[in-house]
Amino acid sequence: MTPPPDRAQGRTSWRHRLVVVVARLARIGHRSAGKLVRLAEATAASAGAPLPAPAPPPASLAGVTASLDHFGEWPVWRLEPEGGTTRAQTLVYFHGGAYVAQMASFQWTWIAALTRELGCRVLVPLYPLAPRGTAATVIPRAADLVAQASAPGDPVSVIGDSAGGGLALAATQELVRRGGAQPAHLLLVAPWLDATLSDPRSLSIDDPLMTVESLRWCGLQWAGDLDPVDARVSPLFAGMGGLPPVTIFAGTRDILYPDTARLEQRSREEGLSMTFIIAPGLVHGWPVLTFLPEARDALPSIARILGGSE
Predict the structure, then answer these.
(1) pLDDT at 242
(2) Range of 290's domain?
(3) Do the strands 90-94 and 74-81 form a parallel or antiparallel pair, or are they unpaired?
(4) What tens digit of pLDDT does each residue of 92-107 get?
(5) Given pLDDT bands bounded at 50, 70 and 90, which one contains residue 31?
(6) CA-CA distance, 262 to 182, in Å (whole number)?
(7) Which of 58, 59, 81, 270 is deepest in the core (most CB within 10 A)?
(8) Domains: count for the chain
(9) What does the mean pLDDT of the chain come to?
């Protein structure tokens, strides 16, 4: 596992340190726990209504156009650089949010920046959230969407952050099981790989943004009628053979990091085509937080990876 080249040996920017301090003072992790419960309750109450399609915040889309399409009942936002694409490539981005929250403005800002950096089309499906959507129903449809995006023949890469990283991996594993075309690359940012957070090391991490208890509760909502250790819910427990090249970004001040470490160990033991870029001391989802210099440093590298030049 290698750290980002400009942020080695655990040194973090003052902006990152400020994020940690503010999160601690505001007790963001504990406040988020109650928010997640309220979001899941609201989602459960909306069953039967059309899936919401919140528009991207205009301030997040500088230099990018957004248009709304649908894949069955799923709203799918299509992002393209202003003036059109310069690369015959499609990205499919599954957003994070503990499976119960819609995209946040910082996620829109990040994916718009990646759209500009790569000059390609990006599809952003707003998949059904838990408990209305569960792993058993969402994973097959997510795989269908990626397969449809691949049908024209242009390269397709799949990316996801946090819960979206778990979804992206599980959907790609489903494509492997089907035996059809695979994405060119799978890029995961701080992926949620084990919905149960069973690694005891997660409890010892000083994470300012999330709590183990709240995530385990969200994992149960996502599992629905499945066992939370079912591979569709917790893709860490699935076979990794047949996957396309995988790149994973993570930070060590993240309660999800121990599961990335477990996967890294497996990749060495099984000879898997996986690259791990680990930032010592950085918080959950740091590459998506574009106001951090660490994230700005990483963006060109992410674009090169997805563009096939790394």
Answers:
(1) 95
(2) 14-43+55-307
(3) unpaired
(4) 999 999 999 999 999 9
(5) low
(6) 24
(7) 81
(8) 1
(9) 93
